[in-house]
Model the fold of this input.
Amino acid sequence: MTRRDREALKAYLGVRTLIRLDRTLPDADRLNGYVVGLSPRFTLLHALDMNMHLNGYMALRNRDVGRWRVLDDHDSFAERALRLRGDCPVPRPEIRLDDPGALLASASEAYPLITLHFEATDPDVCVIGRVEALTSTAAVLRKISPAARWMAETESFPFREITRVDFGGAYEDALARVAAHESLGAQIPPETWN
Done:
């Protein structure tokens, strides 16, 4: 994203206007949401999922954003659906967007799990886990499996390979809750299954 585009996008920071971001990475998803944070390096969206719900946050590198546009009523009924449900974007001023280390540190302080994406090198892979340590060039994560089981070893991920950081979504929340519940030695009662 050019400086000029970022300055224009700033007009929508904290405003209830849905934005679509198209990225320059091959096979990267189009991302829709509300701009709730913006810095020279990162844009933070309160993410709109395909079920027309606000579902967590996505922090993405500005250098990967090719273009953006406002989604209006002609593009989508999402804004009207969200208003009917009473869903509205929530700013996250505690999420620091200065650099990758600050972003990961602040996101991991606010949320139990984060998701890292590596769309430039492997667009089909993401890693979910808890930040255990940060160096000047990498994040060290304790990964969690899709079965909500913690991996024994930590793994290091270079900042330069991370294209997007997600947190606060329903999937990360479900994994964190199941892992926390079962780490206490409890099983989820069958009567609560739906």
The chain has a mean pLDDT of 90.
